[in-house]
Amino acid sequence: MDIGHVSSEMPALPRRLVDPRPVVAVGFVAWLVAAVLVWLNPAWSEARSVCLMGLAVGVLGLSIFLAQRRSARRGDKGAQVGLRTD
Q1: What is the DSSP letter of 84?
Q2: Comparing C-alpha atoms, which of 63, 83, 86, 62 is closest to residue 72?
């Protein structure tokens, strides 16, 4: 049974599927909304620390992403490979 030519190359994903900025923005806004709601409702006061840590992890992840993108733009040896810099 002949299946024809099989290419070993994987097609490139569309830019909108590999851009992490929308995911980071939506996640940060979701944690921000949750933090505001928790602060406004005294019954949820126990969840305040969880919301603050969610925001802190989001800021940490964003700073790592921005540092890696800056390194990739400069062409640093230890920069993440395959990161779009435009």
Answers
A1: -
A2: 83
Whole-model pTM above 0.70? no
**Model pLDDT, residue 56:** 93
Alpha carbon separation from 49 to 5, 25, 26, 46, 55 (Å, rounded):
56, 21, 20, 7, 10
Instruction: State residue 8's pLDDT score.
Output: 78
* Separation of alpha carbons 5 and 28, rounded Å: 45
User: What is the identity of the amino acid at 75?
Assistant: G
pLDDT along the chain (86 residues), means of 10: 72 80 87 93 93 91 85 79 64
Q: Which residue has the tokens 């190359």?
A: 9
The whole-angstrom separation of Cα 34 and Cα 26 is 12
Helices and strands: H and E segment counts in the chain: 3, 0
